[in-house]
Amino acid sequence: MDPVPFAWARWPAAAEAAAAAATAAAAAADEEASLCEEEEASELLQLLHRRDAAPCLRLQQQQLQQQAGLNAQRDLGGPQQQQQQQQRMSAAGSPSAPDAGVGYTESPAAAAAAAAASPAAAAAAATAEGGESLFWHVPSYGCYTTSPVYIPLLQLLRQQQQQRRAAAAEQRKQQQQQQQQQQQQRLQAGSPAALLLEAEAFVAAALLRRRLLLTAANKKLEGQLAAAAAAAAAADEAAAAPKWLSGVSRHLLPYVAQVSSRAFFDPHYRMQLIETLNPKP
């Protein structure tokens, strides 16, 4: 086989370079899309964290305000309460306890802070806030229960994001496979072996058409030769005809031939002809 021309030898390399450039562009686009998705997801997570923490923060602020108000009241009425307590303790004969009132006033604030820090209080605050909460209330098994189940929305969003990413990855994989198949088909169609097969098919079709034309010409020539041979045979037969037909006119020859053939094949007819020509005495 002849060596492959330089153009055909160089073409696959150019095709591979174009395919590599296309894959690099697709990878860059995918990376940009993933970065955008990550940024959007981080912003969404920050917003969700803020909204989730809003009820608890409000409760803490309320508790702090209440505690500050109690502390202010305690500071204002502290000396009078201490004097009254000292008088009561001296009257009862027991030692004074100036710090007892302080402990008594701080215990409700600590209890309120502990209650605010508990998950049940946060859930109650979330239910009280209503639409501002980011927790979905799902009854267990469709029954009415006093202890509702709360599903965090962040977990559901992460699951949906993972599903979307998996679907996008599968779609990109399918697109890459299709592109590879198309490139392989193009390379196979433009390779020297494929071109050689196409040339062989073209030459075979041309040879078949030429053969059909030659066959038709041969048949036509054979017909012409057969007609010429028949004409020559007829001329030979006419030349070899008996001499008694030389005096017969041209219009009478067909009838003479008909009668002679009948007399040749039919002996009774032949005898009748002979008797008509030579009657018995």
From TrEMBL:
Q: Where is the composition biased (Low complexity)?
A: 80-104
Q: Coiled coil among the record's keywords?
A: yes
Residue ranges, annotated region (Disordered): 69-104
What start-end ranges are recorded for coiled-coil regions in this protein?
Answer: 157-186
Listed A to Z, the keywords are: Coiled coil
Q: Record's superkingdom? A: Eukaryota
Q: What is this protein called?
A: Uncharacterized protein
The protein's organism comes out as Eimeria tenella
